[in-house]
From TrEMBL:
Coiled coil: none annotated. Residues 1-100 form the NusG-like N-terminal domain. Pfam families: NusG. SMART domains: NGN. The lineage of its organism: Bacteria, Pseudomonadati, Pseudomonadota, Gammaproteobacteria, Enterobacterales. NCBIfam families: PRK09014.1, RfaH. It comes from the Bacteria. Gene3D superfamilies: NusG, N-terminal domain (3.30.70.940). GO terms for biological process: DNA-templated transcription elongation; transcription antitermination. Keywords: Transcription, Transcription antitermination, Transcription regulation. One of its GO terms (cellular component) is cytosol. This is Transcriptional activator RfaH.
Length: 165
């Protein structure tokens, strides 16, 4: 019977650890989401690791594979409670994988807004107005289109000031 365990990886080496574990025949899972980042003044959409520095690996609890995983390039060690590595419920892994597939299919960004979606502004001079989500404008700001005086205007607002309508 095999169980899922949480592995702590070296900084920014989750992909390397996953590839090395798969080369050794271990099943591993590295959840990712589609996100946007500002790079050289341009907004780029790319896959991002959902849990930086962590990945899940499936092992036979009775085997001696813990040592092999721990000594894999990119892996720092297991997440532990006391002396025992933490077991992760298989249901959680299935749920993460299912949600990852749904987000990818829908083209949803990691904040949960899609271009063209109606949102409400919660703070600032446009508080209470309805707007249409356009795109991310950096890591903490977004562009929305609002109607003011019968004209549509693009405005940049803080992401935390939006809610779904």
């Amino acid at each position: 019977m095999s169980d899922w365990y949480l592995v702590y990886c070296r900084a920014k080496q989750e992909g390397r650890a996953k590839a090395n574990l798969q080369n050794q025949g271990f099943e591993s899972y590295l959840p990712k989401v589609l996100g946007s980042r500002l790079c050289r003044g341009k907004l780029k959409t790319q896959e991002q690791v959902l849990f930086p520095n962590y990945l899940f690996v499936q092992l036979d609890a009775t085997g001696a594979d813990f040592y092999k995983v721990r000594s894999t390039r990119g892996v720092s060690g297991f997440v532990r409670f006391g002396d025992m590595p933490v077991k992760i419920p298989a249901k959680l892994i299935k749920t993460l994988a299912l949600n990852e597939e749904r987000l990818e299919a829908a083209g949803v960004m990691d904040q949960g807004f899609k271009p063209g979606q109606r949102v409400r502004l919660l703070n600032g001079p446009f508080k209470g107005l309805s707007a249409i989500y356009q795109a991310q404008d950096g890591e903490e700001r977004v562009k929305v289109m609002i109607e003011i005086l019968q004209r549509q205007s693009n405005v940049s607002v803080a992401l935390r000031d939006l809610e779904r309508q």
